[in-house]
Each structure stands twice: as C-alpha cells, then as structure tokens.
Amino acid sequence: MSGQLENLNRVLARAREEDRAALVGYLPAGFPTVDRAVDALTAMVEGGCDVVEVGLPHSDPVLDGPVIQTADDIALRGGVRIADVIRTVGRVHEATGAPVLCMTYWNPVDRYGPERFAAELAAAGGAGCILPDLPVEESEVWRKAAASHGLATVFVVAPSSREERLARITQAGSGFVYAASLMGVTGTRESVGAEARDLVERTRRTSELPVCVGLGVSHAEHAAEVAAFADGVIVGSAFVRRLLDHADDPDTGLAEVRKLAGELARGVRSGR
C-alpha cells in the first residue's frame, strides 16, 4: 500500500473517529485553466474538503450533467491533456497534503495505457482513481496496474445495483465506494432522495469500505442530510457552478469556492 493510499484511508478513518462524514470535492482539471483549477482545488481543501477528486475532462461525459459538461468543454477547448491532469494532481497534493484522486472514464486510460497511467498518477502523489464506467468484470488489467503502484480503485454503485452485484463490486474495490445517490446524470438537486440511504445501507452489508455519496449535493443542508448516514459526502457541480458564475472575476470565484467548502464542511459536521 502506497503512502497516498494510506493517507486516503487515514483521512477517512479520522473522519469516522470524529463521528462525521468526510467532505470530498470534485473539479475537472483545466477548468477554467490548468493553473486556476489547481488554485480552486487547493482552496477547496483550505476551506474544509478532506479529499479532492481531479476530473479528467471527456468529450462525451455520459454520467455528468450540464454544469460539469460545460466545464469539461471549456477545459478541452483550452487544450488540457492527460499530462496536465496528472500534474494537477501532483500540484494540489503538494500544496495541501490532502489525498487527491483522479476521476475519469475508462477510454482515455485505456488509450494512454493503464500501466503508464497508474505509474504516472502514483509518481505525482495520487491516491487512486475513480472509474465510473469501468465494469468490474472488465477491470482486472486496471486493478493489477493500480495495485502494483499502490493506488485505490474506486468503483461506483447505483440504486439499481442488486446485492450480488454490490458484493462483487465492493470486493474488487479499494479506498472507498462511490454511491451514486440518484439514477441518471450528476448535478445539483433540491433533495438527494431516500434512495441514497438505502443504497448506503445495502452497500455496507457487503463491505467494510467507507461509502461516500455523490450526485446531487449542493449546499450545507444537503451535506448534513447525507452526512447523517454516509461515510463521505461528494460535491462537484456546486463547486463548478461557483466558478462559472464568476467567470469574469476569477478572484471572486476562488473566494466563493473556498466559502462553499467551508459551508459544506460545517454541514457534514452537523449531520450527526
């Protein structure tokens, strides 16, 4: 187990010891630029995020809603490359010491080379990879590469996942389990829904891995609601929206990201 996977496990365990959920923030690399993404991800940790996910922008992000699709498009038009994503991971970890994961669809990793991608991600200080569209049945090549470099492999489970499949997914994964709280694409919603609690309970029956919930959390009340039953609260679109809303004033956007992280961090601490 690498130091960064140990760091991820330690951060999640510390949150559990403090009787609270961990706060996990997400932002695509290269949005709005490579340097500003690094600044924003760093501000998220400074504001209260325990863990951050760096997204690898994709031209066809099937799981992501319109807010993240817009950010991905901006990043891709800006010329972001896999090397920029890995460099972002390294710079954010160096600046904050927080566990930093990469969230990516499988195709870019497959084309880049799983062994090469895992080696470079680990060398940059990455803690692991979240692969939302990689079926566990087809994941052996990646999991071997990840394990050889001490990286977590985080799989996504959904409300439609049955018990047998949940067990198969959680037994293959490491770090934590990403529970998609609602069916469909990502994005902020007015309520995270009752499906999330049921999914967390069913997932916990198959594994001792922490279960972190994403897809829909946008403000402190959402965070508190999810933190009452989950091990982690994942927020992406809400951070992206703050930057989009202040695209003409990057300093204000950065301040808003830090402010939102603080509000969400207080939310996860009030959830229990």
Which descriptor suits the 3D outline? globular
- Rounded to an integer in angstroms, the radius of gyration calculated over CA atoms is 17 Å
Percent helix = 40-55%
Give me the CATH fold name: TIM Barrel
* Strand segment tally: 9
Poorly predicted regions are 183-191
What is the name of the CATH class? Alpha Beta
CATH architecture identity? Alpha-Beta Barrel
CATH-level-4 superfamily name: Aldolase class I
Largest beta-sheet characterization: 9 strands, parallel
Side-by-side strand order of the widest sheet: 5-4-3-2-1-9-8-7-6
Q: Bin the strand percentage.
A: 5-15%
* Average predicted local confidence, pLDDT: 92
Protein topology:
Blueprint: H1 3-17, E1 22-28, H2 34-47, E2 51-55, H3 66-77, H4 82-96, E3 100-103, H5 106-112, H6 114-123, E4 128-130, H7 140-148, E5 152-154, E6 156-157, H8 163-172, E7 177-180, H9 195-204, E8 211-214, H10 220-227, E9 232-235, H11 237-245, H12 250-270
Parallel strand pairs: 1-2, 1-9, 2-3, 3-4, 4-5, 6-7, 7-8, 8-9
Helix pairs in contact: 2-4, 2-12, 6-7, 10-12, 11-12
